[in-house]
Amino acid sequence: MSKELRFDGKVVVVTGAGNGLGRSHALEFARRGAKVVVNDLGGSHTGEGASQTAAQKVVDEIKAAGGEAVANYDSVENGENIVETAIDTFGRIDVLINNAGILRDVSFAKMTEQDWDLVYRVHVKGAFKCTHAAWPHMRDQKFGRIIMTASAAGIYGNFGQANYAMAKLGLAGFANTLAIEGRKNNVIVNTIAPVAGSRMTETVMPQNLLDALKPEYVTALVVELCHESHEDTGGLYEVGGGYYGKLRWERTKGKLFRLGRPVKAEDVHEAWGEISKFDESATHPPHIAGSLQPIMDNVEAGP
Ligand code: NAD
User: Fold this and answer.
1) Cα 9 to Cα 2: distance, rounded to the nearest angstrom
2) Whose CA is nearest to atom 11 of ligand 1?
3) 164 is catalytic
4) pLDDT tens digit sequence for 77-104
């Protein structure tokens, strides 16, 4: 067993920490010595209402166990207030876990503009507001760890979750760029796609599965990704029920047509096998330069 991953002296903000995954993260960071800002708006899982009870209960739990925590009841849409709570109470912010979330599941034909906007506002705009407020502190102190909470629904799609899938994969794209911009200042940004038993999944999963998929399994990865010893950035991890794995893009070798003559739809039709076939010649472009390489090579080769 390696040395315990401690967070003494670190200030950790967890959004949506009144329930489920966020609660588990908050309790564990506090147990490992961090001072924790427990944010939660305290509404329903579809984003209605508000209450201070959820966040306060978790703060009470942390304090009862001898830890340090403060509650914040703002919506993540007012992320600057959440970060301000960290600075005013504890003087700094080292780790930000963007976790708050809601669902407005409905098939696309029945989805209203409000369903779309609300999910965007909580997941994407909320993560933007919290991260944007935390970023200058992390940059200036040359230390920061940020987590985005995505979902398999975003990576693969899922019936009835067009809005949620859009928001969740949006967060992964957001994180990819932050990872590039933050690296030189030791601001490390990673994305998780978790599965856990929570009030969010209790309507779609049987009880035995809900019991098995303990949020604590997900928290173990979040703690590792946020520790000062962890330097891998820009990763996307699937996690839950004891499984931990990393994802990457895979691209077919594809078909290159020499430049200097038009490429017709019929040419594409004919080359479809080559364009779409995944075999051992497939590649895994690790960055945008790698993605553009064959195109630039083709341009350089000329007609
Ligand atoms: P949960 O409903 O138990 O917890 C989410 C918390 O976020 C709630 O306490 C809620 O009050 C809070 N919240 C909602 N809107 C907020 C806002 N505007 N501002 C502040 N707090 C707000 O759900 P969970 O399963 O623990 O989900 C946590 C995160 O994990 C979410 O982003 C969710 O989309 C994601 N996720 C969960 C699963 C899963 O299997 N449980 C799967 C994929 C992704």
Assistant:
1) 21
2) 42
3) yes
4) 999 999 999 999 999 999 999 999 999 9
Q: What is the ipTM of this complex?
A: 0.99
Token output for 120: 């965007």
**Angle, CA 212 vertex, CA 211 and CA 214 arms, to 5°:** 80
Q: What percent of the chain has pLDDT over 90?
A: 98
Give one DSSP letter per residue of the chain, joined into a string: -PPP---TT-EEEETTTTSHHHHHHHHHHHHTT-EEEEE-----TTS----SHHHHHHHHHHHHTT-EEEEE---GGGHHHHHHHHHHHHS---EEEE---------GGG--HHHHHHHIIIIIIHHHHHHHHHHHHHHHHT-EEEEEE--HHHHH--TT-HHHHHHHHHHHHHHHHHHHHHGGGTEEEEEEEE---STTTTTTS-HHHHHHS-HHHHHHHHHHHHSTT----S-EEEEETTEEEEE---B-----PPSSSPPPHHHHHHTHHHHH--STT-B---SHHHHHHHHHHHHHH--
Regarding the beta carbon of 72 and ligand 1, being less than 6 Å apart is answered no
Check 164, 217, 237, 243 and give the catalytic one: 164
Model pLDDT, residue 266: 98
| Per-residue pLDDT tens digits for 10-45 | 999 999 999 999 999 999 999 999 999 999 999 999
Q: How far apart are CA 194 and CA 147, in angstroms?
A: 12
| Count of beta carbons in the 10 Å neighbourhood of residue 242 | 10
